[in-house]
Amino acid sequence: MIYEYCLIVQGEIVPFPAYYEYPLMRTNKPTKQQRNYMHRKPDVALLQVSKQISAETCPILYGRNRWRMGRGWVMKKDHLIKDVIVSLDFRDYDPEMLAEDLEDPDLFPEEPRLQDSDEDVDGRHEHIHGLRVNWLTENLWYDKVSCAEKMTLRSITIDISKCWCFSNCCRLFDRAECMDFFTNFKNTMVTIEGIHSKKELKRIRGEFKTELPVRLEDDRTYTLVVDKPAKARP
User: Is 111 or 225 the better-scoring residue by pLDDT?
Assistant: First the structure.
């Protein structure tokens, strides 16, 4: 049908790309991940022909494509979306935002002074690290996932390949907030991508209480798919 040809595309639709996602759209030798961004765009002009055609095509555009959720997500028809991908990426804290927040003494307290003892310095670094991680998980990532939770989704993919702290010193996927992100989607097929080790896989499997098989994407990362039976939401 002509509607499907004009509106259904391969890969992901990225309506609000983050600063680090733009290079994925412009590379000459794309990887598998990059090819997901380099798709033919849907011909949305079709929706403006008439109200009748708009009513007929909106469920196709929103419900039969895959959407990558970003910060600042604002979609009038998001109740029609059925398939989304959400990345828990430390780069969501973009350089501009970081520069502004560096001036906030509550979020980024003054760095340790030279005359402080080693114990004071370690404690202060740990405190600052905790504040920054909390801001990332409880604000930026929470905003993304909470938008998805309001939708009546058929499937959601959560990418944790870049689920690190700012310093890349620790993985954040097993924090309580992130585990809630995985399990809060009822009656929805949940796919967890970018699992870095068997230890991480075991931890996430325990949260879902499942022994479902996993897919090995490459030599390092695993993908776990939890297929929940679809039921009518209240």
Answer: 225
